[in-house]
From TrEMBL:
Protein's name according to its UniProt entry: Alkylation response protein AidB-like acyl-CoA dehydrogenase
Acyl-CoA oxidase/dehydrogenase middle domain mapped to chain residues: 129-223
Record keywords: FAD, Flavoprotein, Oxidoreductase
Ranges where the Acyl-CoA dehydrogenase/oxidase N-terminal domain occurs: 4-125
PANTHER family: ACYL-COA DEHYDROGENASE, ACYL-COA DEHYDROGENASE FADE29
Length: 401
């Protein structure tokens, strides 16, 4: 037995001994464990599962041990992920500090910044939010107005950010700020970490059509930010921002992930809600074609992810990761449309108790999937990136005025 198979056996035994049965179920939004100073645990088992994973370094297993990770290499991380998926183990801790900020700090932060922030992320002590988008800027992240003035021993930040997901629940925010108004648009930006308890920071939730309020607008009014909170060099924050977005898009390209949803997929839903004809097949040929196409696309995307993993393991660099956010999120949207069609009128519930929990989750999943066209970079921007950087296509000629 080689070393990787030995590790797989150790992981299986550890999971069997330490993952409570209640945590081997599809994720439920109300039972997810989010990081934070005031984090709460919906059940005793979720607390136990989190603490065991934290102590083992499995909240962020690929990070070095000295920062709270398990120090696993990429192949070992894949084994752990596969084995957790095999028993449907829930993700023990959620936070964009894990998925987005941490990797950027590893790449651009100083050793002092790594030791200050990374262990708090792995231990779930701090919840992070993202301060990129601004009112009126659309999808152009570089078109930002929030400014940070150099005041000698600190920066003075003024401005506002919008669509700050869970800004009202977060402890810290990472922000793009303009530090040189006279430089070219993408060259006068810096990347700052700001404590949400700083004097002058305020947050206003934005109520959505669903009645929920996941998004916020965040205001900065003469907020003093220590210079030690600058990641990378001043005026080079655009590079940090792009590195961070790369990790966000990788996360979004992994279809479904640990997002709460119904227990069934399209094929299972077809069998339950449409049923088979006398010949043992779905009677609607067009529906069969849709299901087959989805299964083929789903497996092809999974194989593409595996290919990128193998390429990283062998040191190869390709343009494949550039397309994954677009194809992954587009297929996720098609899956949600398919589920809605399969459930028919039973997919139209929102709160009514005549609908099952899975039926209500189907409706919410379909509504949420529309955001995938925008979050992490809109689909049109992704197509532009693919055209320019993956396919080396020329810019479109400018229209004559």
């Amino acid at each position: 037995m080689d070393a990787l198979e030995t590790f797989r056996q150790e992981v299986r035994e550890w999971l069997q001994a330490n993952c409570p049965e209640s945590q081997r179920q599809p994720a439920v939004r109300e039972e997810q464990v989010w990081a934070g100073k005031n984090k709460t645990f919906p059940t005793d088992d979720s607390k136990l599962w989190f603490e065991r994973c934290r102590d083992k370094g499995y909240t962020v297993p690929e990070w070095p041990v000295e920062y709270g990770g398990a120090g696993l290499n990429e192949a070992e991380c894949k084994v752990l992920k596969d084995e957790m998926k095999a028993i449907r183990a829930r993700t023990p801790l959620l936070d964009i500090g894990i998925w987005m900020l941490g990797p950027a700090v590893f790449e651009y932060g100083t050793e002092e910044q790594k030791r200050e922030h990374l262990p708090k992320i792995t231990a779930g002590d701090i919840r992070w939010c993202q301060g990129y988008s601004e009112p009126g800027a659309g999808s152009d992240l570089a078109s930002l107005q929030t400014k940070a003035e150099d005041m000698g021993d600190h920066y003075l930040v003024n401005g506002t950010k919008i669509w700050t997901t869970n800004g009202d629940k977060s402890d810290w925010i990472f922000c793009l700020v303009r530090t040189d108004p006279n430089a070219r648009k993408q060259e006068g930006i810096s990347f700052l970490l700001i404590d949400m308890e700083s004097e002058g920071v305020s947050v206003s939730p934005i109520e959505l059509i669903s009645g929920e309020s996941e998004f916020c607008q965040t205001f900065f009014d003469n907020v003093k930010v220590p210079k030690k909170n600058l990641i990378g060099e001043v005026n080079t924050g655009w590079s940090v921002a792009k590195a961070l977005l790369k990790h966000e898009r990788k996360l979004m390209s992994e279809i479904g992930g640990d997002t709460p949803g119904p227990k069934f997929g399209p094929v299972q839903a077809a069998l339950e809600y449409v049923g088979k004809g006398a010949d043992g097949k779905l009677s609607d040929a067009a529906l069969r074609d849709q299901l087959v196409q989805h299964e083929m696309n789903f497996r092809a995307i999974g194989l593409a992810h595996f290919r990128t993993f193998e390429e990283r393991m062998t040191g190869q660099t390709t343009q494949l990761p550039l397309i994954m956010k677009y194809v992954g999120t587009e297929e996720q949207k098609r899956k949600e449309e398919l589920l809605m069609a399969l459930l028919g009128s039973q997919a139209l519930g929102w709160y009514d108790d005549q609908f099952s929990e899975d039926e209500l989750l189907t409706a919410r999943g379909w509504a949420f999937s529309k955001a995938l066209s925008i979050a992490g970079g809109c689909s049109e921007v992704q197509l532009d990136i693919i055209a320019k950087r993956a396919l080396n296509m020329p810019d479109l000629p400018r229209a004559k005025s």
